[in-house]
Amino acid sequence: MDDLANIDIMGLVLKYGPTLLLAIVTLIVGFWIIGWVVRLVSNLMAKNGIDDTIRPFLTSLVGVGLKIMLLLSVAGMFGVETASFIAIFGAMAFAIGMALQGSLGHFASGVMLLIFKPYRVGDLVEIGGGQTGTVEEVQIFNTVLKTLDNKRIIIPNGVVTSNIMTNISGQGTVGVELEYGIGYDDDIDKAKAVILQVAKECPYILDDPAPGVVVGSLGESSVNLNTRPFVKSENYWDAFFYMQENVKKALDRNGISIPFPQVDMHQKG
């Protein structure tokens, strides 16, 4: 009886031993090659400037995909029907994809944002259909903004990419759009000189390009003067509020009025 058992064991070893040995060698060599490929992909993405946030995720996807292929190949060595495994895996992936359809859309949009970089952390942007703030984080599923009043706005990346994106500060310098209305009886040239003097005294406004003032429009009750001084991106709001306050004070000191809507009523006797 023992001899028969020994014969069966020897038969199994002789039958499956070489295949088992080949499978072990295949796994060892395969995992080594996969590690080398993952490192190569990671280095290539780093050289091409792929964002650090997405690089580990993409390399892990490549590694998992290659390992699944390796394990299916090894299973095939033992005569396991791999087609059924592939069908089950495909059905599971399809079901998960349908359940997470919205999230996958935001993920795809996040990948596009991280690859094409329409904005970076620290940029002042208007995204998500009118949300304005400084980019705090660019995540896989969401973009996080910090507003001027210190609110934290989380916008799904799918919403970002489906709307117009305005990178206000992405060029390093930005023009600050300003408009000041003066009365029709006031001296336009004097008002221009006052605004330019305030701009010259502003510590945030750049000398190049030099600021200018033009008559932008003739309103119902005011002559509207427009200026667009350039500042460094990080000084946008500082310059905006400085100009708003100090232009008003300077116009008052020089006797230049800032009209406001009013209605004149005339009574016939």
**Low-confidence segments, ≥5 residues, pLDDT <50?**
none
Tally of DSSP β-strands? 10
How does the helix and strand content classify structurally? alpha+beta
| Helix-strand sequence | HHHHEEEEHEEEHEEEH
Brief synopsis:
The chain is built from seven helices and ten strands. The chain has helices at residues 2-47, 55-77, 82-99, 101-116, 157-161, 188-201, 236-253; strands at residues 124-127, 131-138, 142-146, 152-156, 166-167, 173-175, 178-182, 213-218, 223-227, 230-232.
Describe the structure.
The protein has helices spanning 2-47, 55-77, 82-99, 101-116, 157-161, 188-201, 236-253, and strands at 124-127, 131-138, 142-146, 152-156, 166-167, 173-175, 178-182, 213-218, 223-227, 230-232. A hairpin with a 5-residue loop joins strand 3 and strand 4 (152-156). It has 7 helices and 10 strands. The strands form 3 sheets. Strands 4-3-2-1-5 form a 5-stranded antiparallel sheet. It has a 3-stranded antiparallel sheet with strand order 7-9-8. Strands 6-10 form a two-stranded antiparallel ribbon. It has 3 domains: 2-99, Helix Hairpins (Orthogonal Bundle); 118-167, Roll (SH3 type barrels); 173-253, Alpha-Beta Plaits (2-Layer Sandwich).
Please describe the structure with a list of short key phrases separated by commas or semicolons.
269 residues, alpha+beta, Helix Hairpins, SH3 type barrels, Alpha-Beta Plaits, 3 domains, five-stranded antiparallel β-sheet, three-stranded antiparallel β-sheet, 7 helices, 10 strands, 17% strand, rod-shaped
How do the helices and strands line up, and which of them pair or pack?
Blueprint: H1 2-47, H2 55-77, H3 82-99, H4 101-116, E1 124-127, E2 131-138, E3 142-146, E4 152-156, H5 157-161, E5 166-167, E6 173-175, E7 178-182, H6 188-201, E8 213-218, E9 223-227, E10 230-232, H7 236-253
Helix pairs in contact: 1-2, 6-7
